[in-house]
Amino acid sequence: MSTVSLNDKIPNNVDLSSDKRLQRALEQWQPGFLEWWREMGPDGFQACDVYLRTAISVDSSGWAHFGHVKMPDYRWGIFLADPEGDRRIGFGDHLGEPAWKEVPGEYRNPLRRLIVTQGDTEPASVEQQRGLGKTCPSLYDLRNLFQVNVEEGRHLWAMVYLLHSYFGRDGREEAEALLERRSGNPDRPRILQAFNEPIEDWLSFFMFTTFTDRDGKYQLLSLAESAFDPLSRTCRFMLTEEAHHMFVGQTGIGRVIQRTVDLVRAGKDPSANGAIPLEMLQRYLNFWYTVSLDLFGSEVSTNGASYFGGGLKGRPKEERFADHRLLDGAARVELVEDGQVVEREVKPRLAVNLETRSAYQEDCQSAVDKWNKLAAGVGFEFRLPSPRFHRGVGAFAGLFFDPAGHRISETEFLRREPEFLPSEADQAYVRGLMAGPVTEPRRFANWIAAPARGIDGRPVDFEYVRWNEA
Ligand SMILES: [Fe+2]
Ligand SMILES: [Fe+2]
Predict the structure, then answer these.
(1) Distance 357 CA to ligand 2 centre (A)
(2) How are strands ordered across the β-sheet holding 64-70?
(3) Which pTM value belongs to this model?
């Protein structure tokens, strides 16, 4: 295992001190990052001590160290999974050739674009979530929010390291621009739309961490296959952090469901008792799942095909497949022609996005199945909406479908929208429940059940966040 220098100004396991130029460049970027964190990171909690885990090594047995730290003192650093000896390219036109230690000139632009697009999502989500601390349902949840936030900050470091190390001046400029764009800002928005959507309540946060962080998992799995070995190793370590983000979302929604079904089983009306009705949860699910589907790009994509052909971005767990070149045969995709949904055959590389998205959809279904187990017997079943519904990208963008995938008119869609997606009334109700923070260690907000267990073997009522008297 590679050694981790935790005491360096920038903790790392890439032997940063041996490359003085790179070290200096990153140390110059660091104050801008901290300034961004203070301006756009969690609003109002920078002086609290938060029980956070920090990476101290990259092997699976013990990478995380837990302890109370102030978020601005978090040890953001650069961690790559250990190299595999003699790693070979696993797909595309360069199948079987040695993985690249440097960026080939012909792939410089598309690789930079992939890294910038991934990197941009990391600070974006911190910005989206910055106000949530003020309405936290418990100290346990507050700590989980901050853990996700500091790790998204670290993911930004991971991408900035690649930009600085391998892309020269353009890379340094892109690293600056990552600190300049702002989620939801009309003049300088974040690159992908899901990362410009406001996250103003905890229901949206839990749906985001279930569905949008799970998109992140699939993007990272695809990039972990990359022929560009430093990108692959970076993403492999990021995946270990991502798992926790999805845990926060999955169990967060699970606890909301638990609270609601406990009331239903006791013969009580959830909305008269300050809990969230299951139909309303379904509408939040519909929104966040479909904006996350958009992140996979078009069903038929020439970009996707050229990323695959070049070996830049593969399919998640590429080794599952028999054919790693995708030059023969055809893939079936659903498209819209003359207003009709039709099935067409396309060259298989053109449908790589769809292949990745299908794996994601299956994974989302297993999350929904777990929620349905919690709600068993109350006469309600959560469902993933059809991928035709509410799409902003791809074959179905701009057309109107109901969540079951039936084509409907725009008029009907608008009339029934409050049945499909979170309405103004839903949002007002949810925000009304989350009017203030719950910060006593033993308490949980009324709309959510306590978790089954605490973090890192600590009790549920542990003081996960401490305020310091001024
Ligand atoms: Fe991330
Ligand atoms: Fe994440």
Answers:
(1) 17
(2) 64-70, 49-55, 465-466
(3) 0.96
